[in-house]
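Pasting two entries for a bug report.
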Amino acid sequence: MTTATSPRALAHPAREEIRLEEVLHALADPMRLRVVRELAAAGAEVTCSSVELPVTKSTSTHHFRVLRESGVIRQTYQGTAKMNGLRRDDLDALFPGLLDAVLAAAGHQSARDTSR
């Protein structure tokens, strides 16, 4: 795992350290999948607080940490804000089509759930 270079830098796995089973584990949780869907829809980095989850702040922090440590997202500080972005380039290079397939399936499931 890439170590933090300053007190405000966060550790992320290098591309070659990202493991499929860890990515799938991260994406298997409905709240984390919701975060990934929102980041994909945003198409840019967003703050943690802009992704509204129906959980406590500490639980939300946990979900973002799991996504970061699995290599699904990158988190950086900009001033006091923690910015989040998908590591789409890394995921697409390692697992071509996986992220698009997961996002499409999640969209279909969401549409199915709302039509009930």
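Entry 2 (this is the one that rendered wrong in the viewer):
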Amino acid sequence: MSINIPFQTIDWSEIPKTVHTGETGTAYWQTLQFPGLRIRIVEYSQGYIADHWCQKGHIVHCLEGEFISELQNGESARLSQGMTYIVSDELSSHRSVSANGVKLMIIDGDFLKVYNEKRHE
């Protein structure tokens, strides 16, 4: 499935913020939703820990600050300004932790679904 998104600019200052409480701290989301595609600017407050382990795929780009992406298997990755991570749906259980606050751009959608189709050779 493909979608057609006409050329447009986004003034993020015009996109309202929604509040999402973490295990500790708060996340503020500004969200654009298209069919099969979600684009967000997300800010985590100082001391933020996500309230759940997420299995959804994302492209996460750190705009300001730094955070840790913890994996449920005990691994972790520290990302700072200018760094990005990517993962497809259901390929990890992860959550975000931010000691000092961070601002991220997060893109997710149908293009990150895991495909288990058998290939015919």
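Dev reply: Rendering is fixed now. As a check, the viewer should reflect this: The chain has one domain: 17-105.
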